Amino acid sequence: MARKTANDDPLAPLTLAVGQEELLLDRAVQQVVAAARAADADTDVRDLSSDQLQPGTLAELTSPSLFAERKVVVVRNAQDLSADTIKDVKAYLGAPAEEITLVLLHAGGAKGKGLLDAARKAGAREVACPKMTKPADRLSFVRSEFRVTGRSATPEACQALVDAIGSDLRELASAVSQLVADVEGTIDEAVVGRYYTGRAEASSFTVADRAVEGRAAEALEALRWSLSTGVAPVMITSALAQGVRAIGKLSSARGGRPADLARELGMPPWKIDRVRQQMRGWTPDGVAVAIAAIAAADAGVKGGGDDPEYALEKAVVTIARAARSRRP
């Protein structure tokens, strides 16, 4: 879905990824890294935040190496670079080093526009990664995800998936991947409905909600009903992951109004309010424990264990305990 300029060589000296859609920005980086490692398996990748790129740092990273190694230097939130560092980057753009690909991730607004203009003037390969705020854009994204996998999904199935998942592109992409891995043939609305519905109060998302709220008994009850009504285990692990990830994202975000946080985190405002209520008992260590439990459950339901149901029950109990890790 990310739009590219005519110069679409991932190994161009400079790639400029512009926008605020995190999934697309990450994919732009991954494409460059994959191309570089295909050319040289020993490619050195340096992935830096704006505050890690200080004056002089770029010169050190791009200086000639005795081993003539290929290198990818990624700079995130380039619009936040200091004035002195921007001078360094602009100077580098005039004479880029061989065997080095610089990837600048820029939000695209007025802040740091001078760097954006300089990169474009230098002939950067540009990848547009705009925030997808319209339902029609997200629907197109889902269709594209199915198309890339070579699988067919009916228009009704794509719409049902958008309706069920919402606006988070990572969650939509994950749902498409799991449906493609789990279902043979054309994916239709009935398939999506079987994965995401059933008895409404016992959907995979209800399991996740009760677990992250620390309500183990209710979460286990919802889990057993979901499994008995045909909800796929992989969709339950996906819902658990989404619930814990939302808590982790919101707990590390700066304070602000729900609308501001919604834009920053890619969640609808109503979800911000709900996650705020759910995260009261959580600590960073609790989030880490829950993520590990979900990873183990995901492996268990995908053939890594003998009893997928037990793997899910164990994860739900661990998550519910982690939700109460902050002592009053």
Automatic annotation (TrEMBL):
Domain of life: Bacteria
Gene3D superfamilies assigned: 1.20.272.10, P-loop containing nucleotide triphosphate hydrolases
Short name of any one Pfam family annotated for the protein: DNA_pol3_delta
The keyword Cell inner membrane belongs to this UniProt entry's keyword annotation: no
Domain DNA polymerase III delta subunit-like C-terminal: residue ranges: 202-317
EC number(s) on file: 2.7.7.7
Matches recorded under SUPFAM superfamilies: P-loop containing nucleoside triphosphate hydrolases, post-AAA+ oligomerization domain-like
Domain DNA polymerase III delta N-terminal residue range list: 17-107
Enzyme class: transferase
Catalytic activity: DNA(n) + a 2'-deoxyribonucleoside 5'-triphosphate = DNA(n+1) + diphosphate
NCBIfam families xrefs: holA
Name of the protein in question: DNA polymerase III subunit delta
Lineage: Bacteria, Bacillati, Actinomycetota, Actinomycetes, Kitasatosporales
